[in-house]
Amino acid sequence: MKTPLPPALTAAAIDWTARRLARARLSFGHGTDNARDEAAALVFHAAGWPHTAAPGAYRWRLRRAARESLAALVHRRIAERIPAAYLTGVTWFAGHEIRVDPRVLVPRSPIAELIGHRFRPFVRPERVRRILDIGTGSGCIAIACAHAFPAATIDAVDVSAGALEVARDNVRRHRLERRVRPRLASVYRGLGTRRYDIIVSNPPYVPTGEVAALPAEYRHEPPIALEAGADGLRVVGAILRGAVRHLQPGGVLVVEVGDSAGAVAASWPGLPFLWLGFEHGGGGVFLMTREQLAPRPRPTARRPTRAR
Ligand SMILES: C[S@@+](CC[C@H](N)C(=O)[O-])C[C@H]1O[C@@H](n2cnc3c(N)ncnc32)[C@H](O)[C@@H]1O
Question: How much is the pTM?
Answer without folding.
Answer: 0.93
